[in-house]
């Protein structure tokens, strides 16, 4: 055997790695092939190893090594690094694996732009849009949180479409529905979302579903030198989102969530943009745009208040008003602001469960821990005009830490609002709890 091609003993390899020394045959052993399969085969042969011998040294399955050398599969970057270390190829295999996992130049010339169109009507959100601008400048991850129906997704869609998205995000805008509070099914699994993002970026050789970490590493590699926007809509919790933050330094991730996600700020440096209900004038403008009524009509302010100034409810109210165009306006107002108002708003979206208010409320309520749900029902029963002062609050809580923690949970879920001197329960939520008719709705 030629001296130049003689393999080092396993012990020599370990001592060289331990000493941080370069392999003395690095130049001779460097892959000469143009792709990973050829390079791996030549490096293995240069080390005088059979596939089984490489399997013993690397700990990889011989069947996988065979597939790599046939070009049937590209290894993960971690596997390529192991092979580089064993074969002492100076990171060449890692570079080739990284290049193989990048989409082709043709694919990169057609980046995805998946963000749904901005809402037709968006008023009263100048402050939040400015806050999004500022947050995106100082952090790569931004969480937009707020209560059910407050318009988080619409706000993000508006922000993402400002200017020319292709100039702001030349490598694409990706969108994923995480289904955190969706009536259509359970929240999306992070590995499935990673697969969607990778396919959207034209990556073909994607690790299997169970290889979530490998998918996350691959996404980070693909986006390492790109400027893209990734919108993750309707997050369930921190655990669902964190694996999806594998992006490059020039990318921005926008997350919408009904609950606060402080863990992302603590560990991942995320900025936060809270979204509150609209001001009463802006809410009246939404109704006026949807109904054709004069914005100064006092009835619009009354309806807006009954809708908690939430865009989802306001749009449902506009539809309900249109459905009742033949009725006297006073009767329509009485119906929307009365005891059956929640049912009227829910029926307005009968063909779309995701927009039906009773369904939306149930999705938030049923994700509460038992103690938090019980405290919420108690406070809804005793609240004076929707509020319970902090002075009175201890009267309605049990003498244990569970109930005190429950109030914190409800505040983070945006099912209670802190006014400074009291906690406020949204009127629509109080109506939902008061009119629930089945064991399943309130259990």
Structural commentary:
- This protein folds into four domains: 3-101, Orthogonal Bundle (434 Repressor (Amino-terminal Domain)); 126-274, P-loop containing nucleotide triphosphate hydrolases (Rossmann fold); 280-357; 368-442, Arc Repressor Mutant, subunit A, CATH 1.10.10.
- The chain starts with 9 loop residues before the first helix and ends with a helix.
- The chain has 25 helices and eight strands.
- Residues 1-34 have low confidence and may be disordered.
- Strand 7 and strand 8 (422-424) form a beta hairpin.
- The protein has a five-stranded parallel sheet, with helices on both faces. Strands 6-8-7 form a three-stranded antiparallel sheet, with no helix packed on it.
- It has helices at 10-19, 26-29, 36-46, 51-58, 62-70, 77-87, 92-101, 105-108, 126-138, 152-160, 165-168, 190-200, 212-222, 238-241, 262-268, 280-291, 298-306, 311-323, 329-337, 341-347, 357-365, 370-382, 401-412, 427-435, 439-442; strands spanning 141-145, 173-177, 229-235, 252-257, 271-274, 387-389, 417-418, 422-424.
- With 443 residues, it is of the alpha/beta class.
């Amino acid at each position: 055997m030629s001296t130049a091609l003689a393999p080092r003993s396993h012990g020599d390899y370990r001592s060289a790695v331990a000493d941080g020394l370069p392999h003395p045959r690095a130049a001779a052993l460097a892959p000469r092939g143009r792709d990973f399969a050829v390079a791996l085969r030549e490096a293995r042969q240069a080390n005088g190893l059979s596939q089984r011998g490489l399997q013993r040294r690397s700990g990889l399955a011989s069947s996988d090594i065979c597939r790599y050398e046939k070009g049937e599969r590209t290894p993960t970057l971690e596997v390529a690094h192991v092979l580089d270390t064993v074969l002492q190829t100076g990171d060449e295999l890692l570079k080739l694996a990284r290049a193989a996992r990048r989409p082709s130049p043709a694919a990169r010339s057609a980046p995805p732009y998946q963000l749904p169109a901005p809402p037709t009507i968006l008023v009263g959100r100048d402050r939040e849009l400015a806050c999004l601008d500022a947050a995106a400048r100082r952090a790569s991850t931004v969480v937009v949180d707020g209560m059910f129906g407050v318009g988080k997704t619409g706000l993000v869609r508006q922000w993402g479409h400002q200017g020319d998205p292709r100039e702001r995000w030349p490598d694409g805008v990706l969108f994923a529905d995480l289904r955190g509070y969706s009536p259509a099914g359970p929240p999306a699994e992070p590995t499935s979302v990673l697969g969607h993002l990778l396919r959207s970026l034209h990556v073909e050789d994607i690790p299997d579903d169970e290889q979530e970490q490998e998918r996350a590493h691959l996404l980070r590699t693909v986006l390492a030198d790109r400027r893209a926007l990734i919108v993750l809509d309707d997050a369930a919790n921190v655990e669902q989102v964190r694996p999806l933050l594998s992006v490059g330094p020039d990318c921005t991730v926008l997350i919408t969530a009904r609950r606060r996600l402080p863990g992302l700020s603590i560990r991942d440096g995320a900025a936060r943009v809270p979204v509150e209900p609209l001001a009463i004038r802006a809410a009246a403008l939404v109704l006026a745009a949807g109904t054709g009524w004069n914005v100064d009509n006092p009835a619009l302010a009354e309806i807006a208040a009954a809708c908690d100034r939430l865009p989802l409810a306001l749009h449902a109210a506009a539809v309900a008003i249109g459905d009742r165009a033949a009725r006297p306006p006073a009767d329509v107002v009485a119906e929307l602001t009365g005891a059956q108002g929640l049912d009227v708003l829910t029926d307005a979206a009968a063909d779309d469960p995701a927009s039906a208010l009773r369904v939306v409320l149930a999705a938030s309520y049923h994700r509460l821990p038992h103690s938090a749900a019980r405290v919420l029902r108690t406070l809804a029963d005793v609240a004076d005009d929707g509020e319970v002062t902090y002075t009175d609050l201890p009267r309605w809580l049990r003498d244990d830490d569970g109930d005190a923690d429950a109030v914190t949970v409800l505040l983070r879920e945006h099912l209670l609002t802190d006014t400074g001197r009291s906690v406020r329960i949204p009127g629509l939520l109080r109506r939902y709890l008061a009119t629930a008719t089945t064991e399943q709705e309130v259990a």
